Every structure is written in C-alpha cells, then in structure tokens.
C-alpha cells in the first residue's frame, strides 16, 4: 500500500524512480480507509534528504499512512528553503491539537551542547511530554534519543574522545520482541555521533530495557513503556552514501573525525560504501509500524491516551 504524502513533496518524485508506491493527498481522498497518521519532527539540517530517507523506510508496509512534518517555532532552519518549510511543515502548536498513531523525532547536529543550552530545549521537551498522551508509539533517533532519555529518566550523555563513526554490528538482547521479528543473530547499524549513553546508567532505571547493543558502539536500542517509546543511538534510516557525505564534509576541518569504520569497500573511500544495514532497517521499520503502531492504536484515534 502507498504512503499518503503532501502534494508536490520532493521525495515523491525521487521515490517513484525507485519504484516505491507513494500517493499524493488528492488521490488518497478517493480511498475509503483510515490511514495511520505518522508525524515526523525533523531536526536534521538537510530536511529534504531526511524526509526521503524516512519515507523510503515507511513505504514498505502493506498499510496506508498519512505522513506529516512538524517544525519548531523556536528554531529557524538554515539549510532548507523557507518555501519548503512553509509548504510542507506545520508548527507544533497546530499539530498538537490532534492525536497520532506514530511519531519519529530525528537526530540533530547539536550533541556537544548541554541539553539545557539548546535554543529549543523548552519547546522540544514540551513535545516529548505531549507525545506520551497523544501518540501510540514514538521513535527517538540519535540526539533525540539522548535528549528524551535525559528528559524522562535523567540518563546522562558522555563526550567521546573520537567520533563514533561507521557501521557496527549490533546484537539483539531480547530476540522474541516483535521489533526483531525476522531478524538474524546480529544486524548492522550506522553511527555518527560525538557522545554516548552508557549501560550502567540505564540499568539503574527499572522502566528502561536495553534491547540491542554492540561491543564496539555500545548501547544501540532502548525500549520503554512496552514499546510506546524506542530510543535508537544510531541511524538505520541513513541512505548508502550519507556517511560518505559526512566524512567528505568534515575531512580536514576537524581532528576528531576518523574514516568511517566497516563502511568503505576494502577501507578505500574511492571504492564507495559497502552497504550492510538496509535490509534490517526496512524490516525494523515495518515491525515498528505493524506491531507497535497498527496493532496497538485504537481505530478511533482520539482514544489514544
């Protein structure tokens, strides 16, 4: 089934070329079904790229979804045309009046700031609190995962001496969880961060469960509230060339950014990336939508509590 997207969203034409079935709002109105309502709070600087990455993954379920994009009033993006933001994004003040089947909060390139020093900290923590009563299940990614764990559970973050950068093997710790349905004994996950959360802090909180981790990149997935919240420290949504673009962007500009590990074929950037995470990324997002959103959300979306 298709994703229901705003008319003229740039991702539509990109994904059609990949044979991914998407539907604009005009056509969707002719279908008499209740689509799942998904909202994305996109904090990444390159909005269009992140939109496309997430829509690509959400498109693989047999369920129709209506995808909306949220923006913050307290922050003005510098790398996305204002026309794009005005056309496709709505303020939290507008979207908060509704209830949602799923919410995705992306990472943001601000992890070296103290949480309270982030210009939109007050607004985003208000969104975190709102989600607990207005959303069936929420995915927090990278910085958003650290921020939500800090806000709800006082889990600290720690600065790394060297950027955690590359694609690392992760091990599911609770194999019978629906989020891992169809997974192998390990899966790969891209990471791109300067800070980390640690097992010893999470283990002190009874409401948190570490469900996947790596001996190289540490804690990668945490679950709370029986799957109403997931916290991912990496970027399963990344496209094959994202780490390459980040590496080339920062090369020579920073001294704490190594070549991404386990990424380039034969560790030679000129040979391009060795893509090892996409199948599990697609499966994980399908599992989240099916088992933690569709199977749990009420038909009357206003009954979400």
From TrEMBL:
Instruction: Give the catalytic activity.
Output: L-homoserine + acetyl-CoA = O-acetyl-L-homoserine + CoA
Output the InterPro entries linked to this UniProt entry: Class_I_gatase-like, HST_MetA, MetA_family
**Gene Ontology biological-process annotations:** L-methionine biosynthetic process from homoserine via O-succinyl-L-homoserine and cystathionine
A single GO cellular-component term from the record reads: cytoplasm
- Give the subcellular location: Cytoplasm
Q: Which SUPFAM superfamilies match?
A: Class I glutamine amidotransferase-like
What superkingdom heads the lineage? Bacteria
Give the positions the UniProt entry annotates as the active site: 142, 235, 237
Keywords, A to Z? Acyltransferase, Amino-acid biosynthesis, Cytoplasm, Methionine biosynthesis, Transferase
The UniProt entry, under Pfam families, shows:
HTS (PF04204)
Task: Site Important for acyl-CoA specificity: give positions.
Answer: 111
Care to name a GO molecular-function term for this sequence? homoserine O-succinyltransferase activity
State whether keyword Acyltransferase applies: yes
Pathway, per record:
Amino-acid biosynthesis; L-methionine biosynthesis via de novo pathway; O-acetyl-L-homoserine from L-homoserine: step 1/1
Site Important for substrate specificity: give positions: 192
Protein name per the record: Homoserine O-acetyltransferase
Q: Which organism is it from?
A: Hallella colorans
């Amino acid at each position: 089934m298709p994703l229901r997207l705003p008319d003229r969203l740039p991702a539509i034409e990109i994904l059609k070329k990949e044979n991914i079935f998407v539907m604009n709002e005009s056509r969707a109105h002719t279908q008499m079904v209740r689509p799942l309502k998904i909202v994305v709070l996109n904090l990444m600087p390159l909005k269009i790229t992140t939109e496309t990455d997430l829509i690509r993954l959400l498109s693989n379920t047999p369920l129709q979804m209506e995808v909306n994009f949220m923006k913050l009033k307290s922050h003005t993006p510098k790398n996305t045309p204002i026309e794009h933001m005005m056309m496709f994004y709505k303020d939290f003040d507008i979207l908060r009046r509704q209830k949602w089947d799923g919410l995705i909060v992306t990472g943001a390139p601000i992890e070296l700031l103290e949480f309270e020093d982030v210009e939109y900290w007050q607004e985003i923590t208000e969104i975190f609190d709102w989600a607990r009563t207005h959303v069936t299940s929420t995915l927090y990614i990278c910085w958003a995962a650290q921020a939500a764990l800090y806000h709800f559970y006082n889990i600290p973050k720690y600065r790394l001496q060297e950027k955690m950068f590359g694609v690392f093997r992760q091990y599911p710790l609770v194999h019978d969880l629906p989020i891992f349905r169809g997974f192998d004994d390990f899966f790969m996950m891209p990471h791109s961060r300067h800070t980390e959360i640690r097992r010893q802090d999470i283990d002190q909180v009874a409401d948190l469960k570490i469900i996947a981790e790596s001996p190289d990149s540490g804690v990668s997935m945490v679950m709370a509230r029986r799957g109403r919240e997931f916290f991912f420290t990496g970027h399963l949504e990344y496209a094959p060339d994202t780490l390459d673009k980040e590496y080339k962007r920062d090369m020579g500009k920073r001294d704490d950014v190594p070549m991404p590990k386990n990424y380039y074929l034969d560790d030679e950037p000129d040979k391009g990336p060795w893509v090892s995470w996409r199948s599990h990324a697609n499966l994980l997002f399908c599992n989240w939508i099916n088992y933690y959103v569709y199977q749990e959300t009420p038909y009357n979306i206003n009954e979400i509590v």
